[in-house]
Amino acid sequence: MVMACRVINKRRHVGLQQLSSFAETGRTFLGPVKSSKFIIDEECHESVLISSTVRLLESLDLTSAVGQLLREAVQAQNNTYRTGTSTLLFLVGAWSSAAEECLHLGVPISLIVSVMSEGLNSCIEEVVSLQVPIHNVFDRMVNTKTFSGPETFSVGVYPFLQIPSGTGLIQKERDLKDVASQSLAIYSLSGRPVKSPQLFRSQDKVEADENTSQTPQTLKNSLLADTRCRKSVLTHSRHFSRTGNNQWISKPDGVLEQLSAATPKTYRCDDLVELEVGLSHGGHSSMKLVDEAVRLQYQNAGMQQGSCTVPFLFDISRIFTCCLPGFPETFSCVCPGYITVVSISSTALIKELQNQPIRIVLVEGDLTENYRHLGFNKSASIKTVSESLKVQQDGSEELWTDHVLQVLIKFNVNLVLAQGNVSERLIEKCTDSKRLVIGSVNGNVMRAFAEASGAVQVTYITQVNENCVGSGVCATIWRSIPFDAADEINRMAIMLKTEGIKLVTVVLTSPVTAQVQTKEDTFWTCAYRLYHALKEQKVFLGGGAVEFLCLSHLQILAEQSVNKGNQGCSGWLHNTSSWLASSVTQYRPTVLKLLANGWRRYLSTLLYNTASYSSEFEAGTFIQHHLQNATDSGSASSYILNEYSKLNSGILNSDISDKLEQIPRVYDVVTPKTEAWRRALDLVLLVLQTDSEIITGLEQTQINSQESEGFLFL
């Protein structure tokens, strides 16, 4: 499918240029505000609507070797973490351009690989300072409110925080008290004082006077002007000590704590709703469904207050989605049990079965006449005779179907779940005999029904005996469906439940069929963000904080390399030749600056995508102001933490609401994010070290100067 065309200069590294071109197509997916794309097939003129990096690469015809490598890298990230693919794709493009520029400047390939790898590893070590520990978020679940994120968010203040414009966001009173206890003047980040002097009372006269300072003229420069003009008792560096300074320390349990004359302000997360809001990244409706699923699992596990004996663990393997295109949005919900779709012709059967307990059989593989298990290799010279079926070699599917039906009748089975495909003829005959057969069932669903009903999974229907049959399953029609919707899709949703089953189904509906896939992808992204955060028991301060720290850190490393020459790299090149050592001294600052430029482009694109700035250049200028402030502070990480402590906001805000209680924190998952960085750089360095092109079957005379440029079609 053709999406774009870019001129490829064959005199430069073709593979890196291809990576940059492929990555360019997904830049609008970066950040909380994503722009959907239509992918059009040139041959049949069909189109598909996509809203994620994974769907984009699935739709593109990536036949080149570089395209295949890129697709595999994105799929590996998605299959493992289900998040971080947009970051991976963007950084692939940014760092491909950086590597290509290094080659153009004559930097040796081995040096590019070494310095870029060293730089990224150093960044990953540096951002550990921005990790926030998670503690006991389920302890107060029964008494806390549920997730009620706002319908709309003003996300133009990215990257350090997205600010709600509605009033539905939950912000804890303890956050307000924590901010009130800090010894600093309280400002809204729009440059205006907070209108609650009793709650946000300043700690000394100097700060009280500063509350009346002049308001900046523009919102974008308000925070910058505020931090430059007023005298704050906060110090930006933990490496310097002055009277009254605030300092950040890391406690043994990992909590970030700010030392001050007042009550210490600590960064830790011990509330589920706060964590979910911080990880939603604009997908508030999806995260609300995730919250409901977690709470339903909590109830099913019997973890009510006062009766908890073991810690509750969020089991994402027991959560499933059921997509119903053509149904109203209001039908989206979370339900216990297993919800799936069957043919609308089964309506009468479901109504007859819903008032009685059902016996169930679970089949691991396909339920077809010619199915054989994976270890069975049929030889052409051997005739297979099944004694149990007593069929001859010319036996037809009809005879097999009749035998399967006889087995089900013998053991009084009314429900069959198969993990693989099911014979259409068998489904028809079973429906006529008041028996329901459902195929393509997830393996985790099969195991859950086996545990709850007592059924034992079998490979072939001939293996069924009384001990393999489960009982106590209930089948009901999920809910009444509008006639026009049901008639349009010719399908109906049913619910299968049994006592003690640990399954939760999230029903996703939309009247627009093209949006259902996007809703499902967004739901799973939110669910896996929460899952990984709870599993690791830590998150990053989000909204671009870690990327900003990486940018600042790499710039400092580059400046140190310039100032100290070879001293900054002597530790990792002590065994190398003098030629390489001299090359490192010459080129290391350049490589680090180009690597840092990838982070700059990342942050600029985030700001631009949220429509906060009219151009990426303007966004880059805003970022540069903060970089200068971070450099002047002496410690970029302390600068970020101090700025984050101001009204729970982030340092790159340009349009903040006056209502403090509406400002949530933004969090990022740790391992998925850093692994996306690693995969991106690994792919770039892999392509960098390959030949730019392989020419076969052409004589040198056939290659002329007119072929120095070509076109890459996406």
User: CATH architecture of the domain at 8-134 and 541-567 and 580-652 and 659-697, please?
Assistant: Orthogonal Bundle
Query: Could you describe the largest sheet, including whether it forms a barrel?
Result: 6 strands, mixed
If you consult CATH, what is the topology of the domain at 8-134 and 541-567 and 580-652 and 659-697? GROEL, domain 1
Give the number of DSSP strands.
21
Beta fraction: 5-15%
**Overall 3D shape:** elongated
The CATH class of the domain at 8-134 and 541-567 and 580-652 and 659-697: Mainly Alpha
Helicity, as a percent range: 40-55%
Low-pLDDT residue intervals, each spanning 5 or more residues:
1-5, 150-255, 257-265, 387-394, 568-576, 647-662, 692-714
Distance between the termini: 7 Å
How would you state the average pLDDT, rounded?
A: 75
Please give the order of strands in the largest beta sheet. Answer: 12-17-16-13-14-15
CATH superfamily placement of the domain at 8-134 and 541-567 and 580-652 and 659-697: GroEL-like equatorial domain
- The radius of gyration over CA amounts to 30 Å
What's the tally of helices?
A: 21
Q: Name the structural class.
A: alpha+beta
InterPro entries: BBS12, Cpn60/GroEL/TCP-1, GroEL-like_apical_dom_sf, GROEL-like_equatorial_sf, TCP-1-like_intermed_sf
Protein name: Bardet-Biedl syndrome 12 protein
Pfam families: Cpn60_TCP1
GO cellular component, one term: chaperonin-containing T-complex
